[in-house]
Amino acid sequence: MPGELREYTLAEVAQRNGKGGSPTWLVIRDIVYDVTSYMEDHPGGSELITEWAGKDGTKDFDDFGHSSDAMRILRTLQVGVLAKCDQAKNRQTGGLKDVSDVGSEDNLLEKKRSKRRKFILCG
Ligand code: HEM
């Protein structure tokens, strides 16, 4: 569908880690970004981004407390969204901000759906 963003698994993102001529992708809050063209312009240096190449850099990105300018640049670099199954995995490994979410009905439903998607998308 036009305008709809492709889903990528963490494994697919990991293949775009800037090595061997691949582009540099990273995940921030379940969105997949291609930051290849921005690396050299990054005020914090390219090394900080390289550290998170092919991975989920949400925590470090947030820890710095980037400005709305940074968010605006980020939006222009979006290439996709993280596959739902991996979003769930991220939450289980500490991405979940609010522990009260864990047992909610929505969350359980989402977990069930995620399991199904896991089978389809993430093997
Ligand atoms: C995930 C890894 C990242 C880390 C750890 C990180 C860290 C930092 C740090 C430490 C600075 C401060 C540099 C200084 O003042 O000397 C900075 C600035 C900045 N970064 Fe990042 N950064 C990351 C990714 C990104 C990405 C992906 C973008 C945008 C596409 C971005 C955009 C900016 C901008 C615009 C600034 C200037 C200050 C501001 O407007 O917030 N950063 N970053």
UniProtKB/TrEMBL annotation:
A Pfam family of this chain: Cyt-b5
Keywords annotated in UniProt: Heme, Iron, Metal-binding
Record domain Cytochrome b5 heme-binding: where: 5-83
SUPFAM superfamilies: Cytochrome b5-like heme/steroid binding domain
Recorded GO MF terms: heme binding; metal ion binding
One Gene Ontology CC term in the entry: membrane
Gene3D superfamilies: Cytochrome b5-like heme/steroid binding domain
Family the entry assigns: Belongs to the cytochrome b5 family.
PANTHER family: CYTOCHROME B5, CYTOCHROME B5 TYPE B
Name by which UniProt lists this protein: Cytochrome b5 heme-binding domain-containing protein
Biological source species: Anopheles atroparvus
